[in-house]
Amino acid sequence: MSARILTRDIIKAAAARSYVSVEELMGRRRPRRISRPRQIAMLATRTITGESLPKIARAFNRDRTTVMHAIRALEEKPPHPFAIYEIRIAAGAIAAERQVRDLLNVREFHRNGKPVEEKVAA
Known about the structure:
By secondary structure, this protein is an all-alpha fold.
């Protein structure tokens, strides 16, 4: 059973790939080093999940027309050919980790992969 990739997984993966924080990616600032990864994350969300434009817009705290603009802008000046693929792979890993955490009923993992002893209240 593979883990379902959620929009938040894609946002985390896109932020990590672009060396910006999730807060920057979700924020209102528009410098190119932030806006371009945000646009790529929106396109990746549409490509990977097939979510509707309004749903993607809500996830990014934007309007659906902003998502439409992002997709059109990337059609005119496409990202690196492997960008969406890399985000899909990273988001899949994040989703798989989330699924394992849920199955083990723990809140988080240490960086070395060992689960934290604190269990989530059922």
